[in-house]
Design a protein that fits this description.
single chain; 205 residues; alpha+beta; Jelly Rolls; 4 helices; 23% helix; Ice-binding protein C-terminal domain-containing protein; Ice-binding_C; signal
Amino acid sequence: MKIMSRIMLFCLVLFAAPIHASVVLYQDLSQFLAAAGPGTTETYEGYAPPGGFAVLSDSTVGSITYSDNAYAVDPAFDGGGYNWGTGAVLLLSNPAPFTPILTFAPTKAFGALFGTVNDFQQDITVTIDGQSFLLSTGPFANWTFYGFISDTPFSTFSISAANSALPILDNVFVGQASVAVPEPASLAMLGLGLLGIAIRRRQAR
């Protein structure tokens, strides 16, 4: 029985380490949508007045809750400076120390068109499910698509950029709500626990 106890101890140590989620980055919209399955897409139409903008900060609009510095902007605002050819857009201003965060029901898929108001490409850092990705947008009025699919549900998306950049998003896709399932480590430890109970009952006979 000492051998069995040692085996169980070894297995517990082996599976005690946290299992980190794996997030896959997509840059092709059609491939992402095929892998993501059903979901909802936020286009930001109808929030801002013609030629103006609407503050979304600290509020829930549709299925998404926005933190500080979030705005729905009409394409005619600022003399057409937000006309990307897709209608209204989401402006995320991130002056330090603020990092815009979007919160939603747990899902395994998130994607959007990414851009910047700058005339040059902008480096941005996107964090999904605790994993960060250093990405680049195109210059003004040029969209770049990025999509993320995780093997475990997540509920937050954050974006940051150097020099108080002004990231722009549109057609934000949030996958269908997903129910968390036990991680492999949790299942393994549960199995070992049941095995230990069985061994003790056998010894007691």
